[in-house]
Write the structure tokens for this entry.
Amino acid sequence: MEQKIKDLIEDLRPFINQDGGDIEFIRYEDKFVYIKLSGACAMCGSIDETINLGIETYLKEQVPEIEGVINVDL
């Protein structure tokens, strides 16, 4: 499961990079995917939309067991 999520995040990386940001997989735990957005995405006013309407929607379509995506600050 974890490798599949990592691969899906890699599929999203070019789109995040186009906006000057980056995405890193942190972990998958209790049906939640933990990521870290960095670069321009970390300070963007649309970060919640990016996570909820973009990343989370895509991951849930591909892996229905996922309940949500959480951005962490490390």
Remarks:
- The two ends are 23 Å apart (CA to CA).
- The mean pLDDT is 93.
- Strands lie at 21-29, 32-39, 68-71.
- Helices lie at 2-18, 47-62.
